[in-house]
Design a protein that fits this description.
The protein has 2 helices and 5 strands. With 92 residues, it is of the alpha+beta class. A hairpin with a 4-residue loop joins strand 2 and strand 3. The chain is globular.
């Protein structure tokens, strides 16, 4: 059963400001989370930030772009993206 991936309203606004290459990486990540689950150890600088919060880099260099997501419900397999953008403003 695939995971359901949602995002906050602010994330939808943040996506509009991203460079095209970063958007493509983000959509690839979201597709992978949907099919294989939220633990994505194959992505650059993937890390578990808290019990149900994860992050990874979408683009290295300056600026570095990251995505942060949370597992909202393990039983119905629900994940919510809570941030996508530059590394400096990430909610770690």
């Amino acid at each position: 059963m695939p995971w359901i991936v949602t995002s906050k309203k602010t994330v939808k606004k943040q996506i509009k400001k991203l460079p095209i290459a970063v958007k493509e990486s983000l959509f690839a990540l979201l597709l992978e989370i949907e099919k294989q689950g939220p633990m994505r150890g194959n992505w650059p600088n993937y890390g578990k930030l808290a019990k149900d919060r994860h992050h990874c880099h979408l683009k290295k260099g300056h600026p570095t772009y990251v995505a942060v997501w949370e597992i909202k419900d393990n039983q119905i397999k629900l994940v919510e993206v809570i941030y996508v953008g530059s590394h400096e403003k990430a909610p770690y």
